[in-house]
Design brief:
heterodimer, A: 662 residues, alpha/beta, Substrate Binding Domain Of Dnak, Chain:A, Domain 2, Rossmann fold, six-stranded parallel β-sheet, five-stranded parallel β-sheet, 15 strands, 10% strand, B: 737 residues, Bifunctional carbon monoxide dehydrogenase/acetyl-coa synthase(codh/acs), Chain M, domain 3, Bifunctional carbon monoxide dehydrogenase/acetyl-coa synthase(codh/acs), Chain M, domain 5, 3 domains, four-stranded mixed β-sheet, globular
Chain lengths: 662, 737
């Protein structure tokens, strides 16, 4: 008998997949099985930038011999393909950021009446980064100036992005030295597209260098701007308790799912579902209330700030509908599988597209506009409520769910290490220096139906924490850990190595910190900068005992993220087959050359055990280079009693604690 | 686990907060919101609240506001399962606890309940620690005499253990504060204070054991003391919580010893102390917090073995304790320096007015003496010593060394006083031929013999001056005629020494010395010590600086080449400026040694006196540390000190050592001692003789009488009346401003 293929490592998801198979419903898992990736495109060897091709640069000694019709060599083609992914990824985060800036501007100018400045302290801090005077100014005036100043980053032609100076000085110096300091976000994306079009830039190193510049415009531009403004508008996250997995859906309440990446509309929906009229309306339709759940990164945004539960990451979206419990799913942008519109027809679920940028045939379109946000939100909630009576009995009703603690903004991470008066990164740096914590890993990126979905995340997470490595997670990586039940403080006690456990216990944290959506990877840049500035480790981001891992990546955004981490000084390891695998030259540039220049790099490694091996090597080498104490497992957190004979004899009359006031 | 501690601290903060809130309501009802309060002798209001928030609490209304701030820092307890992080929250609760305790104690002062009287023993506790005491102890904090502070909270299992722990801390010169209570092993609620009192142990500042009060909340007095160090010596601004708390963590080596079972308020107060970088070491089986970063090392540690607990505390706080004990049968350490021996406790005494005596240090060649040799000259000296009573005693300490110089002798000689005084049960006063030594019955019973005096001098002279002294030989004379004969010889040398010292002037040497000892707590302060200007703490003169540099060339005293004289009147030298810029980390660029008006010397905070300009009188006033009355410029010493310390140049204000007043270079550029229009009575008494001589040199023999003091006036209006009446010369001098 053929061995059963497990599709998802998330048991609840797997149950739904089985249920789907029984009911002959197709999912991304089936399509992934059926539709193998094109081996030429997968390794980056397919050139489609002009219509003389597509050219396949394959064959023996392709690196030296193969060329396209124009004569482009394999390394050129592979580099161009990667840079186009970077450009797309940067565009995605940054276009999202642009909308956030425009929302802030509209809010400051009183045009988006449904929004307000929630975190004034953060606004002032951001104003400080931007050199905007706050003394004697109204909050909205400061907000407007901040918005206008950040807006400059998108269309700037010359100069540098505002936020580059937030990086450690040495990191900035490397960027200038190697010509990767971005000027304007849009300019770098446009230039990336230009350079990689037919007949422009052909030197792989030169192409990739601009790729890094474009990626940095994402990390220190679009992503960081988005994180900051979202915090300003909706509040900087602090720890919240939430739940994850499909069990979050309720049988007797209206289940509305927000899915995608943008927080604005979702925030408004969070607000609207507690309006008494809306609750009454839901009751009038026979529901006990309205239950909001999230998916993908919109979920992460509202989870981080409000504890809204998540049904999981990217590969869970079809499965969510298959529970039969989702009355409506409101989607915005990025990582929305068009398949859900078709699938929803087999259930009662309404799929609602909301972005002016994104429509799906077969879905209802209710266009979001920040100027009438509440109205749109109400309309969407009502669609879900109206659909509640249509709920049928079919569907795989799953009740599994896990509690989790999320909400670890970099501000809170600083706070949790010393409270309001002593907040700093000293304890973390100390713990790394002493070897209590071996290093830090950012475990991020998508989940992917090409592998046992979320499985590699889970495996790596458990291995890393067992080896005293603190994990910070974002995006669908967080969802993978959350739906596995790992994002609890108890995980530290049960699964973390003794040194890491000691630190987690002292602070009261899970060993895996949920720091936000994929756009919030920028928070990790801020954390690394703070660690560099705290002292005792590396004085730049490069050289820190830290590694970035995206084991199940699939989105172009992941490539942009991986590259901005590499250019900032973090060794990054991606799972899956390499999209530059066809060219040894490009692979060498992205690993060795980048590492020499930036102390960061980007590897592709499908084998989870090799990912771990490489991670430990980078971390331990960084520790050695910083002359830190050698990491010894079990050195901390375990009571080791090395007794002399005299002490052993004394054990017979042990010192007893004396009893005092009870 | 740590969650237990965090939960307890959070609960405790609510309790203390409620306590403070209730008392505040009561006191406001009695006195009204505008009732003013200040702790005795401090310029720092409620010091903890002031340092952290910058808010100066002056009235009950202010306390209400401070309590509202406190309330905003209170937290909810972490849940049993899937808890949210609690460390930051517990630390905030700790700080809230300290704020609430400070308000509660202030209110108790208003109610007349502080300083507390022990309900069991009647002992009066210290209560709030004044600025004066803080400044008095300043120099000991940095010169290694006092490596740290222990706050003992609770009670030991029995009295013997309490004594053992306290004695061990004393021997290491660790200042001990006592507060709170716990059950002893019999289950009786008591405290270390009572346990010590029951054994007849002397308590108080003189012996470095200071009981603060009966509750855990009283520990706040010690923390108030620690946080003020940051503002007084560190120059940190109120409200700069990061700076203030970094200072306490890095520079104030305090820790808590929690004896007996812990409760919520103890944990809450402990969490407050951890904010300051002070760890807690418990003698009960408590959860520990080992990860570092908030404190330098572990935050909470347990040590169940009372023989090891002090050692463990020293490790956890990272104290540097260097105590070498001379080979004598009694305990030894500067904690015993302040100990008194009453007449009825005295077994034998030497000198004073009771018998001829002297102590003299002289220099010999290396081959003339034998190291470690002790000679006791006298008929039947053993029998006479065993009988007790009174005995003549001449102490001759002879030293030799390759790097030894005549100039170092007075310094070594001056330490003979400390050498004896640091022994437990023996006591010393005076110097040269007016010395006075007492040996107590207790010390005698412990086996202390006459030869032990010589042993102490041998060991301690080696220890203190190891870089310049290679050999030390001590001779004790016990026959009256020998003592008198040798005393005469010593007097000859002392006379020559004094004359030589008087001849040393700023103009005759080419090198001054710096003193950077206080940079450990006032990082930008540099003392420049010249032959005619001693250090502002009064403890270091030019010769001390020179000797210290010889002893430790990389230590806190460095040579400062004078360089070119730029301004003879104001005392500005190129070499001094160059050195200063470097040594102050760029904070101070230039220094005028002989004026108060322009770029005067900075202060660390340990100054013996403050000189301050009184513009309307065209002169200056001088007030010494410990004077609690008002001064003519409308500020008490404590307030004034706040504006002078911290390593900043404040024209018109300056900290000085007492003996500088009678130096020819005292405000030389501003007109010298004739500028002094007001000086406390105590100071007048202290400098009288030398001042008279200087006044005559200046041509105003009755100057001292023309200078006002607190018995004449305490405000500037009356001062002017007085000055006009007596015709003080300052009024006729050129304007100071």
């Amino acid at each position: 008998m053929e061995e059963k293929v497990i599709k998802s490592a998330n048991e609840a998801a797997e149950k739904i997949v089985e249920w789907a198979e029984e009911h002959h419903l197709e999912t991304c898992f089936d399509r992934a099985q059926r539709l193998k990736p094109c081996p030429i495109g997968e390794s980056g060897a397919c050139c489609r930038v002009c219509h003389m091709g597509p050219c396949r640069l394959v064959g023996p000694d392709a690196e030296e011999k193969a060329t396209g019709v124009c004569g482009a060599r394999l390394s050129t083609v592979v580099a161009r393909n990667l840079v186009r992914m970077i450009a797309a990824g940067t565009a995605a985060h940054s276009d999202h950021a642009r909308d956030m800036v425009l929302t802030l501007l509209a809010t400051a100018e009183g045009e988006a009446k449904d929004f307000k400045i929630t975190d004034i302290e953060k606004l002032y801090r951001v104003a400080g980064y931007l050199g905007i005077e706050i003394e004697g100014k109204a909050v909205n005036t400061v907000a407007k100036e901040v918005a206008l100043k950040l807006l400059e980053d998108f269309g700037r032609q010359k100069g540098r992005l505002n936020y580059l100076k937030r990086a450690p000085k040495k990191t900035q110096e490397r960027w200038e030295k190697w010509g990767v300091a971005p000027r304007g976000i849009d300019r770098e994306v446009v230039e990336a597209m230009h350079r990689t079009s037919i007949g422009v830039d052909h030197d792989p190193d030169h192409i990739l260098t601009h790729g890094l510049r474009t990626a940095l415009a994402d990390g220190w531009g679009g992503s960081m701007i988005s994180t900051d403004i979202t915090d300003i508008l909706f509040g900087t996250p602090r720890p919240v308790k939430a739940e994850a997995s499909f069990g979050i859906f309720k049988e007797d309440e209206v289940n509305l799912v927000v899915h995608g990446h943008e927080p604005s509309l979702a925030e408004m929906i969070v607000d609207v579902i507690s309006e008494p009229e809306i609750v009454e309306y839901a009751k009038s339709k026979g529901a006990k209330g309205i239950n909001l759940g999230g998916m993908c990164c919109t979920a992460n945004e509202v989870l981080m700030r409000h504890g809204i539960p998540t049904a999981g990451g990217f590969t869970n979206q079809e499965l969510g509908i298959m529970t039969g419990l989702v009355d409506a799913i409101s989607v915005d942008v990025q990582c929305i599988m068009p398949a859900i519109a078709e699938l929803s027809k087999k259930f009662h679920t309404k799929v609602i597209t909301t972005s002016e940028k994104a429509m799906i045939p077969g879905a209802i379109h209710v266009e979001y506009d920040e100027h009438r946000a509440r109205e749109v939100a109400r309309e969407i909630v009502k669609i879900a409520i109206d659909n509640f009576p249509n709920r049928k009995t079919e569907g795989s009703h799953i009740t599994d769910k896990y509690p989790l603690i999320g909400g670890f903004s970099h501000e809170y991470i600083e706070y949790m290490q010393g409270g309001r008066w002593r907040a700093s990164f000293r304890p973390l740096n100390d713990a790394i220096m002493a070897g209590r914590i071996r290093g830090v890993v950012g475990l991020a990126g998508c989940d992917n139906p090409r592998v046992q979905s979320t499985g590699i995340h889970k495996y790596l997470a458990t291995e890393l924490i067992k080896n005293d490595i603190l994990v910070v997670s974002t995006g669908c990586g967080s969802a993978a850990c959350g739906t596995a039940g790992y994002l609890t403080p108890e995980t530290a006690l049960e699964m973390a190595g003794p040194g890491l456990r000691e630190v987690c216990e002292a602070i009261g944290i899970p060993p895996i910190l949920h720091v936000g959506a994929c756009v919030d990877n920028s928070r990790i840049l801020t954390i690394l900068t703070a660690m560099a500035e705290e002292g005792g480790l590396s004085d730049e981001i490069g050289g820190m005992p830290g590694v970035g891992i995206a084991p199940e990546w699939m989105s172009e955004k992941a490539i942009a993220i991986g590259c901005y981490f590499a250019a900032s000084g973090v060794p990054v390891i991606f799972g899956g087959e390499s999209p530059v695998g066809a060219s040894e030259e490009v692979t060498r540039i992205m690993t060795e050359v980048w590492y020499d220049r930036f102390k960061g790099c980007l590897h592709f490694e499908p084998d989870p055990d090799k990912i771990l091996e490489l991670t430990y090597r980078y971390i331990d080498n960084a520790r050695d280079a910083l002359k830190l104490r050698k990491y010894e497992p079990g050195r901390f957190g375990v009571e080791r009693k090395l007794l002399s004979m005299a002490d052993r004899r004394k054990l017979e009359s042990p010192a007893r604690p004396h009893e005092g006031v009870k | 686990m740590s969650k237990i501690i965090a939960s307890a601290a959070i609960r405790g903060s609510h309790k203390v907060f409620k306590e403070a809130e209730e008392l505040l309501q009561k006191v406001i009802a009695e006195k009204g919101e505008d009732y003013e309060f200040e702790f005795p002798d401090t310029a720092y209001y409620l010091p903890m609240i002031y340092a952290i928030t910058g808010f100066a609490v002056k009235t009950l209304k202010d306390m209400k506001q401070a309590l509202r701030m406190t309330e905003s820092m209170l937290q909810v307890e972490p849940e049993d399962k899937v808890w949210k992080p609690y460390l930051g929250e517990a630390l905030d609760s700790g700080m809230a606890t300290l704020f609430a305790e400070e308000i509660w104690l202030a209110l108790r002062y208003i109610e007349g309940l502080e300083p507390e009287k022990d309900p069991v023993t009647g002992y009066e506790y210290n209560g709030f620690i004044t600025d004066t005491i803080q400044r008095n102890l300043g120099i000991q904090l940095v010169d290694g005499r006092m490596p740290g502070f222990a706050a003992i909270i609770g009670a030991a299992p029995d009295e013997e253990t309490a004594l053992k722990i306290v004695r061990e801390l004393q021997e290491k010169n660790i200042l001990v504060f006592l507060s709170g209570q716990a059950k002893d092993k019999e289950g009786k609620v008591t405290s270390v204070t009572r346990q010590l009192l029951n054994q007849g142990i002397e308590l108080g500042w003189d012996v470095y054991v200071v009981p603060l009060g009966t509750t855990t909340e009283h520990t706040l007095y010690a923390l108030d003391w620690a946080i003020r160090a940051s503002m007084i010596f560190g120059g940190m601004k109120p409200g700069d919580y990061k700076g203030n708390l970094r200072y306490t963590k890095d520079r104030v080596f305090a820790f808590a010893l929690a004896l007996g079972e812990m409760d919520d308020i103890k944990w809450a107060t402990g969490a407050g102390a951890i904010n300051m970088g002070f760890p807690a070491i418990c003698d009960t089986d408590v959860p520990v917090i080992h990860p570092t970063g908030v404190c330098t090392y572990e935050e909470v540690e347990k040590e169940l073995d009372h023989d090891k607990i002090v050692q463990r505390a020293i490790e956890v706080r990272g104290l540097k304790v260097i105590v070498e004990k001379p080979p004598i049968p009694i305990a030894y350490g500067s904690a015993f320096e302040g100990e008194r021996i009453r007449k009825e406790d005295t077994f034998i005494e030497f000198g004073g007015t009771r018998s001829p005596a002297f102590e003299w240090c002289r220099m010999r060649e290396l081959d003339e003496i034998e190291d470690g040799k002790i000679i006791i000259v006298g008929d039947d000296w053993k029998e006479r010593y065993e009988k007790g009573g009174v005995m003549p005693l001449g102490i001759l300490v002879e030293v030799a060394g390759r790097k030894m110089q005549q100039d170092f002798l007075p310094i070594i000689e001056r330490r003979l006083h400390h050498n004896i005084n640091e022994g437990q049960g023996i006591w010393h006063m005076g110097q040269r031929d007016i010395n006075w030594i007492r040996i107590s019955h207790a010390a005698k019973q412990a086996g202390f013999g006459l030869e032990d005096i010589a042993k102490i001098h041998h060991a301690m002279t080696h220890k203190r001056f190891s870089a310049i002294v290679d050999k030390v030989q001590v001779t004790l004379f016990t026959n009256e005629e020998d003592v008198i004969k040798w005393r005469e010889e010593a007097r000859q040398e002392w006379k020559a020494r004094d004359e030589r010292l008087a001849a040393l002037t700023d103009d005759t040497v080419d090198t001054f010395y710096s003193c950077l000892l206080c940079q450990s707590f006032a990082p930008t302060h540099v003392c420049v010590i010249t032959p005619e200007r001693l250090g502002l703490c009064g403890a270091y003169n030019w010769l001390d600086g020179k000797a210290a540099y010889e002893i430790d060339p990389t230590g806190g005293n460095q040579p400062v080449p004078k360089g070119q004289l730029i301004d003879a009147r104001y005392g500005r030298y190129t070499g001094v400026d160059e050195y200063l810029k470097k040594a102050s980390g760029g904070a101070v660029e230039t220094l005028n040694l002989y004026t108060i008006m322009e770029n005067p010397m900075t202060s660390c905070g340990c100054f013996e006196c403050i000189v301050a300009i009184i513009p309307e009188a065209n002169g200056v006033m001088i007030v010494q540390r410990g004077h609690t009355g008002m001064t003519p410029i409308g500020m008490k010493f404590s307030t004034l000190a706040g504006t002078v310390g911290g390593g900043v140049q404040t024209p018109g204000f300056m900290g000085i050592g007492v003996n500088f007043i009678t130096s020819k270079k005292f405000l030389y550029g501003d007109g010298g001692i004739k500028r002094i229009v007001w000086m406390t009575k105590a100071l007048k008494e202290r400098v009288k003789e030398k001042f008279q001589q200087r006044a005559e040199e200046e041509g105003v023999p009755d100057l001292l009488d023309k200078i006002a003091d607190e018995t004449i006036c305490e405000d500037s209006e009356k001062l002017l009346e007085w000055l006009t009446k007596v015709g003080h010369p300052a009024l006729e001098m050129e304007p100071m401003i």
